[in-house]
Amino acid sequence: QMANFLDQAGGLWARGALNGKVGGAFTSSATQHG
Asked: How many CA atoms, within 13 angstroms, populate the side-chain half-sphere of residue 21?
């Protein structure tokens, strides 16, 4: 589930949808998962 979420959220994050909201936390999580 988490991996799937990261894949989908990755697209939104890349487009700046999460900019300023969960951007920081998501970036850290994505980095750990590679």
From this structure: 7
Res 3 pLDDT > 70:
yes
Structure tokens at 4: 């799937």
Model confidence at 32, pLDDT cuts 50, 70, 90, reads low
Distance CA 30, CA 7 (A): 9
CB-count burial class (<10 Å; 0-12, 13-18, 19+) for 24: exposed
pTM of the shown model: 0.23
CA distance 3 to 32: 12
pLDDT of 17 strictly over 70: no
